[in-house]
């Protein structure tokens, strides 16, 4: 009971500390703040927090919490974030079983082939079970197919040369056998099977808004075409259907030194519908439900789950709201639940 009282007292003091930080930052932004001896900087914040909670808080969590307050004082973090989301260390008395752990080190396999350079990051990774390979896309334009054969990995790489546009997501077209990726202003289609280093990619442009995510619609029985879902920074969801004929009929003449062929976005029938009032962070077609799902940082239309035909009409869509929006989601067929993270 005494420990509980002490913690509540420490928590109250910590919340007062956060309020002071927010007030100071707000005044600084409005130009009304005057520095004095009572100014709260990171060193004071770190020392005070450690004094209140002791070893229960880690340096990296204090730093992350402080950074959140400084970057956006209007949306202060929850107090429990100061303790992080880490499991306690094991005392070594019990051995973990497969049911009690997520990853077993002995079952990991490291791929030593480097596909991204310094200051580059992976923005998308997609597993293709039927073909036993994995597709990755880096922010600066490296598309890679890792294929596992005879217990070893080999890869195909394609580098999309660009000036400023970054890749924001990728997926695989199972029928056309192309890798699809989106940048801020284009749609990339890569023929990973082509032996040519040049002219083995197609780019659809221009896209009016910034594309943020992409997903393939997987439906049986359509061997000659694939449908692509995309979301942008204005809340729109796009529907793009492609066939083999499109790669022949709709390509424009490219420059001699270009590594890809261009296709005009205006030549495609591309239905779109505004489903959110903020960024579409993730989009996915859930085959088991025969529905597409999209999520957004929008607090009103945070998550949409409906038939793909809703993108071509104006009928109401099934949606629900979450404060501060939804950043991620997944579907579990065994449990028949959708889990969202905000």
Automatic annotation (TrEMBL):
<keyword id="KW-0677">Repeat</keyword>
<dbReference type="InterPro" id="IPR051242">
    <property type="entry name" value="WD-EF-hand_domain"/>
</dbReference>
<dbReference type="InterPro" id="IPR015943">
    <property type="entry name" value="WD40/YVTN_repeat-like_dom_sf"/>
</dbReference>
<protein>
    <submittedName>
        <fullName>WDR64 protein</fullName>
    </submittedName>
</protein>
<dbReference type="InterPro" id="IPR036322">
    <property type="entry name" value="WD40_repeat_dom_sf"/>
</dbReference>
């Amino acid at each position: 009971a005494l420990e509980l009282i002490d913690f509540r007292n420490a928590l109250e003091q910590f919340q007062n500390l956060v309020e002071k930080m927010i007030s100071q930052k707000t005044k600084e932004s409005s130009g009304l703040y005057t520095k004095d001896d009572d100014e709260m900087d990171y060193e004071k914040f770190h020392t005070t927090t450690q004094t209140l909670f002791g070893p229960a808080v880690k340096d990296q969590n204090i730093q992350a919490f402080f950074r959140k307050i400084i970057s956006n004082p209007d949306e202060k973090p929850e107090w429990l974030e100061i303790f992080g989301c880490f499991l306690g260390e094991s005392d070594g008395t019990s051995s973990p079983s497969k049911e009690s752990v997520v990853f077993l080190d002995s079952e990991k396999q490291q791929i030593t082939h480097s596909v991204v350079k310094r200051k580059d990051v992976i923005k998308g990774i997609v597993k293709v079970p039927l073909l036993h390979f994995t597709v990755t896309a880096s922010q600066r334009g490296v598309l890679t197919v890792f294929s596992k054969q005879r217990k070893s990995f080999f890869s195909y790489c394609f580098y999309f040369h660009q000036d400023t546009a970054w890749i924001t997501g990728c997926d695989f077209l199972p029928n056309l056998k192309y890798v699809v990726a989106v940048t801020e202003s284009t749609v990339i289609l890569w023929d990973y099977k082509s032996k040519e280093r040049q002219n083995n990619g197609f780019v659809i442009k221009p896209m009016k808004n910034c594309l943020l995510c992409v997903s393939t619609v997987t439906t049986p029985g359509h061997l000659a075409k694939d449908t692509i879902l995309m979301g942008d920074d204005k809340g729109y969801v796009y529907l793009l259907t492609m066939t083999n004929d499109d790669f022949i009929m709709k390509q424009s003449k490219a420059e001699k030194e270009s590594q890809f062929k261009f296709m005009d976005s205006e030549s495609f029938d591309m239905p779109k519908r505004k489903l959110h009032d903020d960024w579409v962070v993730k989009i996915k077609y859930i085959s088991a439900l025969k529905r597409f799902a999209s999520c957004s940082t929008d607090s009103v239309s945070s998550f949409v789950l409906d038939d793909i035909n809703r993108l071509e009409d104006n009928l109401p869509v099934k949606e629900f709201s979450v404060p501060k929006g939804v950043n991620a989601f997944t579907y579990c067929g065994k449990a028949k639940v959708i889990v969202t993270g905000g």
